[in-house]
Amino acid sequence: MIIYIGKRIVALLPIWLILSLLSFSLLHLAGGSPAAVILGVQATPAEIAQLNAQMGLDLPLPVQYLKWLGNVVHGDFGQSFFLNSGVAPALVTHFSVTLTIVLLGFVIALLIGVGAGTISAVRRGGVVDAMVTIVSSLGFAVPEFMLGLLLILFLAVSHPIFPVQGYVAWQVSPASWLAHLVLPSFTIGFIQAGPLARITRTSLLRVLAADYVRTARAKGCPPLVVIFRHALSSALLPLLTGIGLIFTALLGGAFVTEVVFNLPGLGELMLNSALHRDFPTLQGGVLFIGTMILLVNLAIDILYSLVDPRVRLG
Fold this sequence. Notes:
Blueprint: H1 2-29, H2 34-39, H3 45-55, H4 61-73, H5 87-122, H6 127-141, H7 144-158, H8 174-208, H9 211-218, H10 223-234, H11 236-260, H12 266-275, H13 279-307
Helix pairs in contact: 1-13, 5-6, 5-8, 5-11, 5-12, 5-13, 6-8, 7-8, 7-11, 8-11, 9-10, 11-13, 12-13
């Protein structure tokens, strides 16, 4: 198992290096001078050249990249132009909000998606199956910002059950913290529950048609035992792959949702950094997000190998 994990980590290293190179290139692909952005329109060419030298932007690009990468490996993403703080602390602070939204959304997607997909497979061809198919299609058709706005309209404005926007820290009020996260988490969770329901239904239908499931039924096993012990556990492999993809989609959906609900997450940080041309924060944010996605895929691969040991032999 340890050897398999080591191989997977080694396989991810080239991808991470390519990601770091793309993140570093943002500074130069965007055009313009970061020094000019910091100093403003009144800056003279001499002042811009001096600040470029202080920031190391006058060095050859390979030297700049290696220097930046060395700092990143040690946890130093540089200094933000406008936050008056280091990029790394800002990323961690904002990502804690995003991660909370994603985890709550993931639980909602898992409960709704797996539950609806299981019921749909068991009641194949019935009214419930048709309803689940129709509702799950909304996950492919409705964007996060539209569903978020509809939830705000009906559950925060017309019927003030939840707060409209904003964020309250856990330390201030746990109840208010949870209330502010329900709508954005449900927004991304409900949308991703649709694809998860379809994956669950397809995988479970194939397992329910297997010989050992029919044998278990013939022996008089209760229906719930057949579904949850024999069928659903065997349908876990395709479900794990879908969960990995959906978790990544939840992360992307959270960035959009944070803007709609005015939450201080990573999406809002990246948007403000782009508007202010805060290149160090953009560079660090892209690399940070990409690294999180790679780690999620690594975790899914490890779980996959635990469920099916034959994967480690490949």
